[in-house]
Amino acid sequence: MIKIFKTKNEILDYRNSKATNLTIGLVPTMGNLHAGHLSLLKNSILENDISIITIFVNPTQFGPNEDFNSYPRTLDHDLTLIEELALKMSSAKEIAVFAPTSNDEIYPENFSTSISIGPLKNILEGKIRPTHFDGVTTVVFKLFHITKPHNAYFGQKDYQQCVIIQKMILDLELPISMHIIPISRNADGLALSSRNQYLTDTEMKMALTLPKTLNAIKDAVLNNRDFLDAINEAKQDPRWDYLEVLDAHTLNDDIENKKDLVIVGAYKINQTRLLDNIVVKNVR
Ligand code: AMP
Predict the structure, then answer these.
(1) Interhelix angle for 209-222 vs 227-234, to 10°?
(2) Nearest residue CA, atom 14 of ligand 1?
(3) If DSSP codes are grouped into helix, strand and coil, which group holds residue 226?
(4) pLDDT digits (tens, 9 = 90+) for 11-65
(5) How far is the CA of 263 from the centre of ligand 1 (A)?
(6) Hey, what's the torsion of the CAs at 11, 132, 167, 280, to 10 degrees?
């Protein structure tokens, strides 16, 4: 059973009408849903009485030359996918969709506050997209505030985003448990992404360099080979924006004696930047 809300006041009324003993799961998205998003929602449905999925293409996380205007907006299709999932799970649990019709619902005129997370926002994606994470943390904080979830679901696909939101939850003592859901991939191993549809067939094949390289580095890490060789060799290809092995918890590059590592990469094919990562636990 899906309920759809298009304004902030409607979702606030809905949320505030819920008994305090019911658990709420939140799945923030920008829509154009695929199996990756649906796996977040599935986890939320399984683990909560009520799941709220938000669909909002957040302007503040796009840079001036990025794809905000052309980002795929497919609300009707998204709602169909959510309904199909609800039917498939034959769950009597409630699902609410918050899909604001206008940016003003989130950013009213003269909105001027920003949530900003220390140095983590300046590395990796943040180096290339300097305003991106302020936009992400601000909108996620606001969605947390509106929906007051007990559990929030994010995809491992955006690994730095997960670390940053986890840090925001910790620093601001938000009473929310964060759940990081594994990456959904297509049959060839490419991480699903709304931006994959910008790629031609040839570019889709090229994109496989991303997961293949991450896997090669993972093998080097696990077999105690010098993974720096693998990184340096891969980086001969100028399409890499970054390719690094970092501490999985802090994203620090001092990984000596660190047990859990993450291999993160961003690979750019013409105008399309693709992200992927692999976490390798208990290395030592
Ligand atoms: P987006 O709509 O791209 O902002 O993504 C919304 C949420 O879905 C984020 O938490 C993403 O990390 C997550 N997500 C996107 N793609 C995938 C994927 N392939 N597998 C798992 N989660 C994903």
Answers:
(1) 160
(2) 155
(3) coil
(4) 999 999 999 999 999 999 999 999 999 999 999 999 999 999 999 999 999 999 9
(5) 18
(6) 110
